[in-house]
Structures are given as structure tokens and as C-alpha cells.
Amino acid sequence: MRVHFMLRWLLTVLLFSLLAACQPSKTASFIGTDLTGTQFGKPLTLTDHTGKLRSIDDFKGKVVVLFFGYTHCPDVCPTTMSDLKQTMKLLGDKADDVQVLFVTVDPERDTQEILAQFVPGFDARFIGLRGTPAEVASNLSEYKVYAAKVAEPGQSGYTMDHSAGLYVFDKTGAPRIYLGYGEKPANIAHDLQLLI
Q1: d(Cα 167, Cα 15) in Å, to the nearest integer?
Q2: Can you list the positions of beta strands (E) in the chain?
Q3: Which end of the chain has fewer CB atoms < 10 Å from its terminal CB, N or C?
Q4: Beta partners for 168?
């Protein structure tokens, strides 16, 4: 009788151990840098490409991907936006739980009209944000984003040297992941799915 009881107890322990091993891990394993627990300053507040004032808090309930760039960018910005477009395709139906926000670092040239053509051209769900130079500078500072004009020798134009990573916020609006420039769409999709 005692042997029978011990055998049942061992089988029960084994069963619970196997079930626990099959459960998903409670700690996310991000490909990007885990920002969980970090704090930024005041929430981003700028005007979108339709003229509506937006705050990052407006998108609670969605995973937010925040990218700082500019429309005249010759390579980094369109490449990143194309990667985000591909990421949305990889997410399928889950893409509706993601909001991509493109914040211009060049508000002097990136008018509302230009943003309205550029940003939704990658995906109709993407939103472009802008503000006065002072408002943009304040938001760049809050998110520790570097941006500076670089004069083109012998030309009247300029480019913008800027940070090019992605900030990802969970559905509560908390910062969770930083993905560096050039991250593959499959890796971006992997991390977003962990938050969706």
C-alpha cells in the first residue's frame, strides 16, 4: 500500500513538472534590448499628418513602435519604414494591434502635407508626427534621440544626422524594447508578437 502511494505521488510530481515545462516562459526573451522598467520623461505629444494633436497615451491598448527620422533621408529612413511595412505583413491579423509612429527630426522641411504623403505610403495605418522645431527638440531630448543638421559641401541643402533605432512600447504605454537600425523584419515581428 505504501509503495502504491509513493508511486502515485511520484507520478503526480512528474506530471506537474512536465506541465510546467510546457507552459510559456513568464519572462519575455526579446531580440532587441529589454527596456522593461526604464522611464522616459513626459509622454510624446506632437501633431499628426492629419493635423490632430496626438500623445503616445492615445495608443494605449496597442503596441507602439516609435521611429525618429525625416522624409528627405536618402537611405536609413526609407529602409527602416520598408522594414516596418514588411514586419506588419509578417504579423498578419495581429498587425492591427500595432501602431507605428514616425516622428520627424526635420520639422522645417517635413510639413504636414509631406508627412501625409510619405508615412502612409508605406502602410495606411502608419502615422507621421511633427511639431515646431522647439516641440520636436523637446521630444528628442525626452527620448534621448540625437539629431543635427549636416550641411552638404557646395550645395544649399542639408541632411540630418540622427539616431535610427526603434522604441517599442507595450499596450499599457510602458517602454519595453529598443531595436537598433537594420534589425530584420522577422526579428522585429518576433519581439512585437511577445507584446501583442
Answers
A1: 41
A2: 33-34, 45-48, 53-55, 63-69, 98-104, 127-130, 147-151, 158-162, 166-169, 175-179
A3: N
A4: 65, 177
Choose among 119, 97, 102, 122: nearest CA to 192.
97
Model confidence band, residue 27 (pLDDT cutoffs 50, 70, 90): low
Q: Which residues pair with 97 in a beta bridge?
A: none
If one counts every other C-beta atom within 10 angstroms of the C-beta of residue 89, the result is 11
Going by C-beta distance under 8 Å and a sequence separation of 6 or more, which residues neighbour residue 104? 68, 69, 70, 71, 110, 115, 128, 129, 130, 136
Q: Specify whether the CB–CB gap between 181 and 165 falls below 8 A.
A: yes
149 contacts 109 by C-beta, under 8 angstroms:
no
Amino acid occupying residue 30:
F
pTM for this one? Answer: 0.83
Residue 152 confidence (pLDDT): 75
Nine-digit cell string for 190: 518576433
Q: What is the pLDDT of residues 100-117, one digit of tens each?
A: 999 999 999 999 999 999
- Helices 185-195 and 76-91: crossing angle, nearest 10°? 50
Question: Positive or negative, the Cα torsion across 87, 89, 90, 94?
Answer: positive
The pair phi, psi for residue 94, each rounded to 5°, is -70, -15
